[in-house]
Design goal:
- The protein contains 10 helices and 12 strands.
- It is an alpha/beta fold.
- The chain folds into 2 domains: 147 residues, ATPase, nucleotide binding domain (Nucleotidyltransferase, domain 5), CATH 3.30.420; 162 residues, Nucleotidyltransferase, domain 5.
- Strand 4, helix 2 and strand 5 form a beta-alpha-beta unit.
- The protein starts with a strand and ends in a 27-residue tail after the last helix.
- The mean pLDDT is 97.
């Protein structure tokens, strides 16, 4: 039995999770919420994370009835993500590891989403649609790697929705994507001339964003949100189905913060029903960035003897999903 404390802080959420083998002991987090019309700047985000980190660690240990001395390994997000928050959280992890003489495990954020999704849903070998603020990828496992078959060519879907929210002055509390989803449910008129850019198994969102910038003053906010969701999620569903067909998969796992969106879940589920396939999705406890997913992969790596020296724990903003050797899968 091994216990891992995981620290996540790659974007606007900072979280601490504790896993004991596959059992969740604690999963706490805080979200940096900027003013409406503003994004989250790296320096401000990192300051927010540093402010809450000690209290989150204390709360996670309290929830788990543990002390730091009883933790076997400290895991943290190596990347991808925003540089300053990543650096701040890696310093916390390294400090704890040095003070308590614990091994470090540097975790790929994207792989953590996938592995936590597999753990929670018990999906066997699914195609994965990873939809988040910084990433939009369609992934399938092959030969010890998570191979990316399709992805965004420019803007990730979560980043795109954030920018639409800023353009429309939609509140960031609790999140821009959630508020767009609520407004979309009240939209009645579909804007039919929005660009739909699917290129093989990839998508492009920059042209759609430019179009919204040009026309947003001529339409109701609710109709823009409704139309944006229908177009973007249709594009994502199309490339996901194409990958499922290519690899002959009957399972689909949806992960990442945008995966909380009910409309996206329904589109994907409808597609899977037509293919006699099964959809696996999660709620916001695990879809949204969290420390437990980092702790889970930290344990997987530690149990496989994947060791990290301090020099191996430098963070990187560009840490590709397919660059990680998945030693624990067969």
């Amino acid at each position: 039995m091994m216990i891992c404390l995981g620290i996540e802080g790659s974007a606007n959420k900072v979280g601490v999770g504790i896993m004991k083998n596959e059992k969740l002991l604690s999963n706490v987090r805080k979200t940096f919420v900027p003013a409406a019309g503003c994004g989250f700047e790296p320096t401000e985000t990192a300051r927010h994370h540093r402010t809450h980190m000690i209290s989150l660690i204390k709360q996670a240990l309290l929830d788990s009835s543990l002390s730091l001395g009883e933790v076997d390994v400290i895991a943290f997000t190596k990347g991808p993500g925003m540089a300053v928050p990543l650096i701040s959280m890696s310093i916390v992890a390294r400090t704890i590891a040095l003070l308590w003489n614990k091994p470090l495990s540097a975790v790929n954020h994207c792989v953590a989403h996938i592995e936590m999704g597999r753990l929670i849903t018990r999906a066997d070998n699914p195609v994965v649609l990873y939809a988040s603020g910084g990433n939009t990828q369609v992934i399938a496992y092959c030969n010890k790697r998570y191979t990316i078959f399709g992805e965004t060519l420019d803007i990730a879907v979560g980043n795109f929705l954030d920018r639409v929210a800023r353009l429309l002055n939609i509140s960031n509390d609790p999140s821009p994507g959630y508020n767009i989803e609520q407004m979309a449910s009240r939209g009645t008129n579909f804007i039919s001339d929005l660009p739909y850019n699917v290129k093989g198994m990839d998508i492009s969102l920059s042209g759609l964003l430019a179009k919204i910038e040009a026309i947003h003053s001529h339409h109701k906010t609710e109709d823009i949100c409704y139309s944006v969701q229908e177009v973007v999620f249709s594009m994502m569903t199309e490339i996901t189905e194409r990958v499922m067909s290519h690899v002959d998969s009957q399972e689909l796992l949806l992960v990442g913060g945008v995966g909380c969106n009910i409309r996206l879940q329904k589109m994907l589920n409808d597609m899977c029903i037509q293919r006699n396939a099964k959809t696996f999705s999660m709620d916001d406890r695990f879809c949204i960035d969290n420390g437990a997913m980092i702790a889970h992969v930290g344990l997987l790596q530690q149990k496989e003897g994947i060791e990290f020296n301090l020099k191996d724990t430098a963070v990187t903003q560009r840490f590709r999903t397919d660059s990680v050797f998945i030693k624990w899968r067969y």
